[in-house]
Amino acid sequence: MNRAHDLRLAEDDPVSDQEYHNRIFDEMSLNDRDLQNCSFIGCSFVNANLTGARLNASVLRDCNLSNAQVAGCNVFATAFESCKMIGVDFHEGVNFTGAAFKACNLSYTVFRGVSLTKMDFERCVFIEADLSLTNLERASFVHCDLTGVDVHGATFFQTDLRGANLTGWNLKQQDLRGIIITPAQFETLSAELGIQIMEL
Question: Under CATH, domain 1-99 is a member of which superfamily?
Answer without folding.
Answer: E3 ubiquitin-protein ligase SopA (2.160.20.80)
